[in-house]
Amino acid sequence: MKNLQKEFPVLSQNTYLNTASSGLLYDSLLDYRQEHDLDFLIGGSMFRDHQEQFLNTVRKSIADFCGGTSENTVLTPNFSIGFNTILNGLEKNKKILLLDEDYPSINFSVKSKEFEVCYAEVNASLEENISEAIAQYSPDIFAFSLVQYINGITIDLDFLKNLKIKHPNLLIIADGTQFCGTKVFNFEQSGVDILGCSGYKWLLGGYGNGFLLFKEGVLKQLTPNSYLKTSLNSSYDPSYTNIRSRFECGHLDTFNFGSLQHSIQFLSKIGLSEIEEKIKELSTYAKHNFTDLGVLDKVAKQRNDNSAIFNIKGDQKLHNTLKEKNIITSLRGNGIRISLHFYNNKEDIDKLVGILHRYR
């Protein structure tokens, strides 16, 4: 896997610990993009004659990668647009459980649409807090990020499966943007009803692409009756009026979704289980070093699950120092966010730790 680093030009000049902000463009994806636009250049409208057939292959690639079905896979420019479309199809009397300080694309979107909202606290007892909140508030929907973007806290997938068994009428909506591409995951076997994801982070798909996976029947349940009634009585082509078109209205960009498909195939060729193992190895190594230094977020220290994201003690000054040393991170919450992917190595962590030692 070490030779794969040569695919990523950014790594030749930087220690890149910032995939949680943006995944990297790589050589073979650039080649694909150039070929795509060359085909468009010389083909014009003829290039798009087979657009729908191509997009069907993209849906299948996503479904196969995530353990879903292509029939219940929807393409969307990003998670936020897809999630807001879901919310627009819900009755306003629904009560939605959120996690405090979760990603604004979730929490702000729900609050701004004036749903009744309740919260569970994100701390070392996250799963217990969720169970208690459900018992106390009886929400209709639970919407959350599988991995918290500030500190990398990850919800236990077995907990979600048991939660769905215990509360079969609870609609569980998960944002996998900081998750998909880091671990092997089977959507159909999970407790999640809807999985959404933007493709520009761990999936390395670049910007302007994402997807939603639905369990069987859920997509129809979230489509307003007015839409269903109008589509049934319409003489328009079904591609404009079917349930999927509510999310996929307008032209979809084959450049962006082709990039996502190319990256999914790229990751699949490496092997998602191998990527998971590499990230686990790096995360364990990083957590050990951060704990020894006393810089790790206290909640992360108390959790056994190591995601690809950590939040360490640090301020703007330290962030600037790291940037001067070509170590790329993000300021998030009360500290500095570190995020690791398969193209990182222990030497990257050692370089960071060496500066942290001197900075203390």
Automatic annotation (TrEMBL):
Highest taxon listed in the record's lineage: Bacteria
Record key words, sorted: Aminotransferase, Pyridoxal phosphate, Transferase
Pfam families: Aminotran_5 (PF00266)
Statement: the UniProt record of this protein carries the keyword Calcium: no
Domain Aminotransferase class V: 50-352
A GO term for molecular function: transaminase activity
Keyword Transferase: yes
Protein name: Aminotransferase class V-fold PLP-dependent enzyme
